[in-house]
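Quick one - first record:
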Amino acid sequence: MIALSLAEIAAIVGGQPHDIPDPSVTVTGPVVIDSRQVAAGSLFVAFAGEHVDGHDYAQRAFEAGAVAVLAARPVGVPAIVVDDVQGALGALARDVVRRLGTDVVALTGSSGKTSTKDLIAQVLQRHAPTVFTPGSLNNEIGLPLTALTAGPETRHLVLEMGARGVGHIRYLTGLTPPTIGLVLNVGSAHIGEFGGREQIALAKGELVESLPEDGCAVLNADDPLVRAMASRTKARVLLFGEAEDADVRAENVRLTAAGQPSFSLHTPSGCGDVTLRLYGEHHVSNALAAAAVAHELGMSADEIARALSEAGTLSRWRMEVTERPDGVTVVNDAYNANPESMRAALRALVAMGKGRRTWAVLGPMAELGDESLTEHDAVGRLAVRLNVSKLVAVGGREASWLQLGAYNEGSWGEESVHVSDAQAAVDLLRSELRPGDVVLVKASRSIGLERVAFALLDGAAEGEVAAR
C-alpha cells in the first residue's frame, strides 16, 4: 500500500484512534486480515467471523510487526476503531485507488473470470507494472485487499468481480471505480440464487453502468445477453468474439494435437498469430477478452499475440494438466463447475485425448436451483455424445442424475458408473487406469473433488485420499 499515517487512515475511514501514542506513525507494509501474514509496517484488519474473531489476534499481529489494527472495538494495542470494519476497508481502498490514478480494469462473468483475469494480467505486465486479483478473491473483502497492494508505480489494476445477487457488483464498483469494464458471459452459474439468466444479466451489467463516459465497455459479441449491455453504458463499447462485427476477433480457430487453441488474432491495430498454452477451445473467448483490454490500453497486435502465446495458468486447479511417469494425464479442473464450464471441460478432454482412453470424473454442480436435474442430466448426455470413454459420477443425488443422463443417452452400461465419494473414485481409477489414459476431474469447489487428482498424482497409499 502507499504510505499513509495512522492519522490519515483514521480520517479516511472515519475512525477513532485508541492506544496510539504517535498518530504520525506510517503504515508501510501490507494490509492483511490474517495475523500470520503480518509483516513489518502492516495494518491488521480484524474481522469478526462466524468461527474466528480477528480481534482475538490483535496482540499477536502487533507483536509480529503491525503498526495498528483496524477494529470494531479497542483491542489493547494501537487501533483505529470504526463502526463497520468492512466499510472502512472499502473506504480505504477507494481513497488509495483515487490517489494513485491508475487504470482500473474490472471484469465479471458467469464463467472464466479467473482464467481471463490471469491472461489479462500476464499480457499487461509486458506493458507496465500491473497488480491483479490473486486467485478468486473477488468479493467485498478480497477486492479492496487487492486494490490496497497497488503502489505509486502501478499503472494497471486488474480486478475480478463476483456476484451472488443484484447489487453486489454495484457495491464493488463503488469501492474501485473502473475505467474499463469487461463482461465475459451470462451463464447458469448461481442461477438458483439469482432466479434466472435475466437476473444474472441484470447483475453483471451493473459493471458497465458504473463506467464513466470516457471509459470503455468490453463486451462479448457472441453472447446476446452481454452484447445487449451496450445500451446500459455511457462508455464507448469494444466488442470481442468470433462474430464478424467484433472489433477484436479470432479467425481460423483450431486445436493442436495436445488440445491447445491456435488462431489468428484481429484487432483494430493489426493482426497476429496466437497459440495458447492453455487447454480447450473455450479459452479462445478468454484470450480475445484479454486482447481487447490490452488493445484499449495501447498494446500492439504483435505484442498482444506474443504475450498471449506465452501466458500460462496462474491459479490452481483450473485445467491444470500433469502427466504421470506412466503416461496417464491428469487434468485437475476441480476448483469450480457450472454447466458452461462442464461442457467446455468435456470438449477439452476429448480434444486432448484423441486416440487415448478418456475418463470424466465429475461431481455435482452447486446452486442451480430448479435447473439442477436438467443440467446434470444434460452434462451426462453430452459425455456420451462426445464419446468420452468412461464417466465416473461422484457424490449423491446430483451425481446420480449425471450417470442416469449418460445411461439414457447411450445405454452405456459399464461405461458410466456412480460412486459415493472421492475415495471410491480413487479406488476405481487405481484399479482400472492404463498408461496413456486422460483423466478429467471437475465439480463445484464445495465438493472437494481435487482430492481425486491429488491422490492420482502424489502416490498416496492405497485406500488413502491425500487432502491438502
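second record:
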Amino acid sequence: MTIQHRNFINGGFVDTKAQGIIPVLNPATGAVLSEIPETSPEAVADAIAAAKTAQKGWEAKAPIERAGYLRQISAKIRQNVPALAKTIVAEQGKTMGLAEVEVNFTADYIDYMAEWARRLEGEIVTSDNPNESIFLFRQAIGVVGGILPWNFPFFLIARKLAPALLTGNTIVLKPSEETPNNAAMFMDLLAETDIPKGVVNMVYGRGAVAGAALCENPDVGLLSFTGSVETGSRIMGAAAKNITKVNLELGGKAPAIVLKDADLDLAAEAIVASRVINSGQVCNCAERVYVEASVEDEFVAKLSQKMSEQKFGNPAEDFSVAYGPMINKAGLDKVAGMVNRAKAAGASVVTGGEVADLGQGNYFQPTVLTGCAQDSEIMQKEVFGPVLPVNTVKDIDEAITRANDSEFGLTSSIYTRDINSAMQACRELKFGETYINRNNFEAMQGYHAGVRKSGIGGADGKHGLYEFTQTHMVYIQS
C-alpha cells in the first residue's frame, strides 16, 4: 500500500481538505514512493492560524529556552541519519554519501543557530537630545512561510526553520512536491520532541495551490523561498498585495575563471566536482568557464578528461557513482534542449552531450562544450545539469567583464596563483560570493546571498539570522 503523508498542523498530523493527490516518484526508476495531498487554501489558512496563535507564547520564551527545543530536534536527526539519507536518495536521486553529508550538516546547522541564543544583539545609538537614550531592539516578525526546493530538501528545512524559531517566529513549511518524504520524516521526529504545538507546521502541495495560499495570506510576515527566478518573481507578486517581506535565494550562473598562472589540475578537479555534485542541480556551483587563451587547450583537455571519468547511475544500487539522475523528465529535457541548441549554434562537444539511456531514469552524460559564445543561451541561462560550457578570454579583465555580464549574481570563482589577480577579482566580480582556488560551497557561518536576479536577502551566519527579525527603535527621555 502506498504511503500517504498528512499535513502537520497545530501539533499533530491531520487529514485536511485536499484538492487532489500528488504521487511522489523515484527519479532513478520512476516508481511511486508515496502520495501527498494537494492541500486546499482553507487548510493552509488553518496552519497559518495555528502558527499565529502559538507565536506570542513562543516569542515570550527566552532565546536560550527556544534554543533547547532546537537542540532536541538536532539530536533526533543525528539518531536517524541512515534512514533519512536513504529517503533522500530514493526521492531526490543524490548519492548516499552526499545525502549523509546533507543530513549531518542539517543537524550541525540547527545546533549552530541554537548557539546564537546568547549572542542576539541590539544597539545603543547616541541621541542629539540631552537626557535621551535610543535603543534598537531586534524582534520577531511573526509567522514565517518557508517554501522549500527539491535539490537540498532536508538542509533547507533547517536553513529556514532554525533562524526563524530562534528569533521568536513560528513557521509554516511547504516542501517541494518532488521531495516531500524527507520532510515527512522530519515532522515525525519533531513530533517526538517537546516543542509547543503550532510553532512548526507543514503543508504539502504544489506551488500554484498551497504555495500561493501561503504567499497571499496577510498573517504571514515573512516569505522565505529557495528556488527558480520564475517562481521567486511570482512570490514577490503575491507578497506585494500585503507588503510581506520576502527572502529569496534564486538561480545562479556561476562563472569559473581560470587564469594562465593557475594550478590547472586543481582548477579542473574543483570545477568538475562543483559541476557534477547532485547531478549539476545546485544553484551556487560552476555553470560556465572562462579560460585564458594561452592555456585553453591544456586546461580543456584536463577538464574533459575528468568530466568523462565521472560515473553516473542509480545511487541506491551503486554507491560508487559520482552522480545520479535528474530530478524529473522535465529537468532532463531542459538540459538536453539547451545542449542541442548550443551545438546547433556552433558549440563543439568535447565529451558527453547526450541523454544517457540506462533503461530507466533521467540521466544526462557529463558534458564539456567549447566555442560557446558569450551571448549564447548556454552561457547566459541556468543549465542545472552536468554540463560545462567554456569560453576563451585574453586576460583577467575580459574574464571579469564577461563573468559580470549576467542576469544572475549568486556565486563566482577564480583560479590563480597571483595575489593581485585574486584581489582584483574580489574588488570587481559582482556576485554575492567568490571562491578562490576552491570549490563552490559556502560555510554556515558566512552569508549566502546573491545580487541581480539571484535573490533578495540571504541566509547563514549572523546576517542571515537577522533576516528573520524586524527592528524596533525606542527613544527614552529621562
